[in-house]
Amino acid sequence: MNLTRNAHDKLNAVLAEVQKIKHSDFAYSDSVTALDLIEKTLRADLQRLDNLTPHSPENLKIAASEAATTHVIIFMELLGVILRSSNIRNAFEFYSPLQALAKRLIGNAARLILSSEWEYSPLTYPSTIPELPNYVLIGLPASESSNALIIPLAGHELGHSVWLTLNCSQQLKSTLKDTIVKKICDQWGAYLKFYPSASQDALTDLVGESTWRIAYIWAESQCQEVFCDIMGVRLFGESYLYAFEYLLAPNLTGEQSPLYPPMHIRASLLAHFYKHLGWEIPNKFTESFKDEESPFEPGTSESFFLSLAVDTTRSAVDALIRICLDHCNSKGIPLPDSDERDRLYQAFSKLVPATRITNIANIVNAGWKAHFDEHLWENRAAVFVKRRTVLNDLVLKTLEVMEIESRWNT
Amino acid sequence: MPAIASAPLTTTLPDGDGLAALTLDAAIELDQLLQRRSDKKEAVLNLSQKLKTTPGLTGGPESLKSLADPITIEIFSRALRKHSGEPIASYKDLASKIRELTSDIDKLLANTGQPHIQQLLKFCIDLHHEIIQHRRICIDMYRHQSKYRA
Known about the structure:
The complex is a heterodimer. By secondary structure, chain A is mainly alpha-helical. In chain A, about 65% of the residues lie in helices and about 5% in strands. In chain A, helix 4 runs parallel beside helix 5 (about 155-165). At the A-B interface, helix 3, helix 5, helix 6, helix 8 and helix 9 of A face helix 1, helix 4, helix 5 and helix 6 of B.
């Protein structure tokens, strides 16, 4: 079999790419450190293959080849992200404030890669790549990668890292399991259609659990996504909603993913949290999102369990809110401040970057306020015609001021 | 009561604790032990420690049920079912299989009794396969189902 030799060659080919990418001009060191970690993992795979002999069992050779190929698959995609993180298309002004926020939320080990993607699919990289521990990878669509007003969506991605750091899955496990079992008992007739020989007593044993485990998995994933949305709002306030609506409304997909609550429910849960914080929800926010179709035929077990997962997620929202608020408060993360937002907005209206900034959220919120002010700069025709670009530059410059002030203060 | 066999397991990548690497390293070490090329047991020790510190895994049926996370249960159930060729119908069965396994690893590490090294090697490969499969399903699922959603 050529399996191990092929795996060897494939690993070396990716290692050669790593070396080439290392010669790129990176603005921040986290991208370079990621390349070092990838190289280390690939070299460990090579060492494993080298430790095999012609007498080693075939299934061990297959296992070592599969492990190597899995890393090749994952790292090729990541190398693209890392390479694009050096592209000047990215607004590097975001980087430092976001990195500071990440460190505050998940600790000093937090590392950030900010990239631009050639798909209109924002922020698709989960922060759960074990070979790159503590990394937050944020990829913005290339057409939006310098748009300062959509930074708040990075709050969602930071939420994934917090979810892992706090081991939220473990925290919620019993609640989710109990809720699902209770909901199955409440709809026992419907469940029996799929498992006619089932008994309620057996629902919590290994075989019984295997019948509804998929509902648990979907609910856990949906809870994580809702948690990340809640985190986005907690960190950025109204601008998270505006950015969320800008990129995702009415929706970008044909049908619901079981891993997410339907878009209109996501929007209503965001609105629920927004009100929980005592803020007034922007006009017609939830109405902007269109219902997605279910991916499953009505009456199927998948459809039953998906509906169960969505209900279970809704039941967990208050617990998710509590975890998010407790964590942010314990880390001293300030809430967005409308007075401060208005002060910065005043600076923008005078076409100057603001100073004395303490919270990135206030900058972006002031940016959105200016964005919605149709009369802003209407007396300055030359500015008015390119108001979007001017506003973006003002927000980016203010982010730079924040970075300089922060360095000065420390 | 058959489960939904085709259902994806989870979106969470399961290898956050390096379990795949630990099992593969242990398998390679056991292979070298069988071929008498080395008597190192460092990777087997690391795997043993990992199994003993995974929440709920080695504490008996009740602890498995209440503490272990569902994905760990799923992965170990599949690997042990494949390894033993026997059905695992209850937490009691699963806990018993895990106990047999850890006891064999302990014997090997302590140089006592007659550990079934060949069997341990096969289990490590089976467990590794389940983790890798799971991870690949997660990658596919994440690519297809998270796109355009943020």
